[in-house]
């Protein structure tokens, strides 16, 4: 029991240290070989925007510089959307707002990478579909 606790404390300290300044990180993730940003987002319930935004000091815009073992922060405390949806090939913002009973304004506020007419969403993209509006700074 005691050694289990110590192990977790040590692991948490390591993760915080390697994720640098993100002491207010809500969730951490260690990159595996072959991961892409959207694959991580889909499995971990984090939006494409949020993953990029939170890690914009280390992950480049095209997300082609991930490396195995790299520790990413998935969301910051207080602004961590965990209600997510992976866009399918026939989805539009209309199908998504209907499915989740949320307004387009909420979708746009929570996914600042989506343009105002919602024409740039793509299959495999992960959107925040929470009804709560998050205040990304
Ligand atoms: C992601 O969300 C789904 C649906 O709510 C849930 O079943 C799954 O456990 C979540 N995965 C993680 C890694 O949080
Ligand atoms: C990167 O994220 C920080 C907050 O984590 C934000 O203040 C900054 O504007 C972001 N930069 C870009 C280019 O998005
Ligand atoms: C949809 O959301 C509105 C308020 O945002 C609520 O009044 C209504 O009951 C919801 N409809 C369903 C089917 O959940």
UniProtKB/TrEMBL annotation:
Keyword terms, alphabetized: Chitin-binding, Signal, Virulence
Signal sequence, renumbered to the chain: 1-21
Pfam families to which the protein is assigned, alphabetical: LysM
Keyword set includes Signal: yes
CDD domains: LysM
GO molecular function: chitin binding
Gene3D superfamilies: LysM domain
Residue ranges of every copy of the LysM domain listed in the record: 27-74, 83-129
Entry-linked InterPro entries: LysM (IPR018392), LysM1-like (IPR052210), LysM_dom_sf (IPR036779)
PANTHER family in UniProt: AM15, PEPTIDOGLYCAN-BINDING LYSIN DOMAIN
Name of the molecule in the record: LysM domain-containing protein
Naturally occurring in which organism (per UniProt): Hericium alpestre
Higher taxonomy: Eukaryota, Fungi, Dikarya, Basidiomycota, Agaricomycotina
